[in-house]
Write a structure and sequence with these properties.
It is built from twelve helices and 19 strands. It is α/β, with parallel strands linked by helices. The strands form five sheets. Strands 3, 4, 5, 10, 11, 18 and 19 form a seven-stranded mixed β-sheet that branches. A six-stranded parallel β-sheet has the order 14-13-12-15-16-17, with helices on both faces. A two-stranded antiparallel sheet has the order 1-2. The two termini are 16 Å apart. Bound molecules: zinc ion (2 copies).
């Protein structure tokens, strides 16, 4: 089968790969229809997220059809259309029972295979093996409540970036009337704007260095701002009588973005950090953080429970995030998809790869 693989630091390639097989009785094979390219894919390709073996199939966001299930899989059958969260989870361990599926004792991220060959190959391929399928995959209905089709690419966003954005906005404590700062207007940041407004934010200041991304944020209802400490602070102070933001979302994953998030926050604010931080250390200026009683919430999102909570919003039309999918390319053009996503050329927000014509079972 064809797959987009991590071929060298800084590079992906389209290669021929053996089809995955069931390895455990709880595994399922899923024929991928749509797979996303994500910012965290770039962390792997660029070597910031080390320990991934060269030749690993990339990707952790997918919608597809169940092709085969192992003997212990329940609730799924060949032909079911499913979305997968980016990490698998058992559904029953200490962490899963508390909704922290990101830290399931059996958690593994799709598209991460280590030097010893442990891990799970990724979704940017024709077929993928999903371990712990019963507790990981979520079946999708064909249509929304109004009878229109639920598009693959809309459901795809549940598996990572929409759920990641939503859970981060919740961790930042956004509620009715909150003045929110969102640092970074990539796919996750823009979805955080959407989530914050949905959860009652009275204003969202959206910060990004790229003009077309600021325009996207504006079109979603945010006040766009360049990533300049003084400009950001002035924009927020005008909305808060000089207090600072009630809640801040950091959706970049860099020390400077975190600096800006801390500077934007008012005393007592929560900072939800969706950015994937791979730095060994961060020079946190503790005195100002102490002086402002800030809470910083880091960490990978627990996507699995959020799929159950957010899918109804897609079905009843109260959330329509699919407009953020700007580019669709066939899997065979995946290398170009990475280039578009990385260079932010052509107005790219979310880039997805499709297997077309869709091989329905
Ligand atoms: Zn992702
Ligand atoms: Zn678990």
């Amino acid at each position: 089968m064809k797959a987009i693989v991590f071929s060298a630091i800084g590079k992906v390639a389209l290669e021929e790969r053996p089809e995955p097989r069931l390895l455990a009785p709880g595994d399922a094979l899923v024929r991928v229809r749509t797979a996303g390219i994500c910012g965290s894919d770039l962390h792997i390709v660029d070597g910031r997220d080390g320990g991934v073996r060269l030749g690993t199939t990339m990707g952790h966001e997918l919608v597809g059809f169940v092709e085969t299930v192992g003997p212990e899989v329940t609730g799924l059958a060949p032909g079911d259309r499913v979305v997968s969260p980016f990490s698998v989870s058992c559904g029953s361990c200490f962490y899963c029972r508390r909704g922290l599926t990101a830290r399931c004792v059996s958690a593994r991220c799709l598209g991460v295979v280590d030097e010893e060959g442990r891990g799970v190959e990724g979704a940017q391929a024709e077929l993928i093996r999903i371990p712990l399928a019963s507790s990981t995959l979520v079946k999708l209905p064909e249509t929304k409540h109004d009878g229109s089709p639920l598009a693959d690419e809309e459901a795809l966003l549940l598996g990572d970036i929409l759920s990641t954005a939503w859970s981060t906005v919740e961790r930042a404590g956004v509620s009715d009337g909150s003045v929110v700062a969102v640092v970074g207007c990539g796919p996750v940041g823009l979805l955080a704007v959407l989530a914050a407004l949905h959860l009652g934010a009275s204003a969202v200041v959206a910060v990004d260095g790229v003009a077309y991304r600021r325009e996207r944020a504006r079109s979603l209802g945010a006040l766009p701002c360049a990533p300049d400490f003084e400009l950001v602070r002035r924009a927020i102070d005008e909305l808060t009588e000089g207090r600072g933001a009630d809640a801040v979302i950091e959706a970049v994953g860099s020390p400077s973005a975190l600096d800006l998030a801390i500077a934007a926050a008012r005393p007592g604010a929560l900072i939800g950090i969706a950015g994937y931080h791979t730095e060994e250390a961060y020079p946190l200026a503790m005195a100002p953080v102490y002086a402002k009683n800030l809470t910083l919430a880091f960490g990978r999102a627990s996507v699995r429970p959020h799929i159950d909570r957010l899918l109804p919003h897609l079905l009843n039309g109260t959330l329509s995030p699919a407009a953020l999918v700007t580019h669709r390319l066939p899997l065979e053009e995946g290398v170009r998809g990475y280039e578009i996503f990385r260079s932010r050329s052509e107005g790219a927000i979310k880039v997805v790869l499709t297997n077309d014509p869709a091989p329905a079972p």
